[in-house]
Each structure stands twice: as C-alpha cells, then as structure tokens.
Amino acid sequence: METLAERLASSERIVFLTGAGVSVPSGIPDYRSKNGLYTGRENPEYLLSATCLQNEPDKFYAFVRDNMYYPDAEPNAIHEKMAEIERRAGKKVTVVTQNIDALHAKAGSRNVVEFHGSLYRCHCQKCGMMVHSEQYLESDKHENCGGIIRPEVVLYEENLPEVAINGALAAITEADLIVIVGTSFKVSPFCNLTDYRKSGSTVFAVNQELLRLPFQYTMIQDDAVSIFKEL
C-alpha cells in the first residue's frame, strides 16, 4: 500500500479501471457473486439483452426497474479518494468504469469513461428525446410520443460505443500508472485495455480476489475500501 501511495503521488497520468466491487460497499450488488444480481435467476443475460428489450420490453423494463436502480446509493471511500486524487495539482486522472451507477461522477470525478454506459441517461427509442431517469422509473412509455424509453447502457448483443473505447484507449496509452480496482478483470474487452499500456507504465491491482494477469503488476489482495481510506 505504501508503494501504491508513492506511485499515486509521483505519477502525473493515472487511470483507474473499476468494476462492480467498487460499488458493492455503496449497497449496489454485483452480478455473479453469491449474493449478486444473477443469483437464482434463470437466464439473467437474456433479461439484459437487446433481444429482450425489442421482443419483450415489459419484461426487460420490470427487471431493470426493480433490480438495477439504486438512486439513493452514495459514493464510498473508493469513489471519493479517486475524485480527491484527480483534484490534486499536476494530475491527469481518468476513471474507466464498468459500472453503470454514475457514482464516480456523483463523487466528483470529472474524467469518467463509462465503458458500459449509465442507467441515469435514458432516451426514447422512437423520437430520440433524452428522458430523466426519474421519469423512466415511473414508466418506460414516453409521454410525448408513446415510444419505449431505454437506459443508455450496453446490453448483451450490443456493441460498445466508439466514444467509450476511444476514451479508454486514449487514457490507457498515456498513463504512467494504472490501478485496477474491484473487478475480476476477466470480461472482454475491458480486460484487454491493459494490452495498450505504454512501455514503462506501472500496474497495480486492488481486489479481494487474487488476479492473475499475464504481465508484471503489483497485487494488493485486500478490501479496497480499507486500502483507499488509508491512501
């Protein structure tokens, strides 16, 4: 941890790669753990697929509305510390996150690449109008035109938006320090981002589960909240 603190202090360009484990301490479940979103559900990937949205929009909406939204969730020490590091003079910090809960932005991080989109940006598929998430939680039918509203998240069977890929790669390729936090780092293409790191960059991983990465890195196998509180 002391070495990580030293590298955070000395590095000018930092990228945090964050996953569901960062938001679990804020009361948002992950997907595949013992108490995760997918536990006990039959074919949950279908419920979060483009096919389900298109063919059974009521089923899609009910699942997303009842299980995905945590509007009262607050950032925890991990989100807050990353935002604090970004505010330090001379630092260019980018958070590239798999999470769709907008907690990094809520904590004050300004350079956030939401790799899989955000539940808190919604639009009508018929007229294209942007819709507040509060309105979506009341109904998925757009009152203006009757179209189906959807959150701007990447569903199964959909491609990642180019803006997310380009933003992530731009940050990774110039980073002096990359810190992987709260993710098993197994889901492609997110786990492939480190392939584009520049020569000489340093990689740390902070995660309760041991990661096995095919390159040199420093593993801190511990509770990320405890670690970030001490940084």
From TrEMBL:
GO molecular function: histone deacetylase activity, NAD-dependent; metal ion binding; NAD+ binding
Active site (catalytic residues): 116
Keywords: Metal-binding, NAD, Transferase, Zinc
Residue numbers binding Zn(2+): 124, 127, 142, 145
InterPro entries found in the cross-reference section: DHS-like_NAD/FAD-binding_dom (IPR029035), NAD-dep_sirtuin_deacylases (IPR050134), Sirtuin (IPR003000), Sirtuin_cat_small_dom_sf (IPR026591), Ssirtuin_cat_dom (IPR026590)
Source species, domain of life: Bacteria
Protein known as: protein acetyllysine N-acetyltransferase
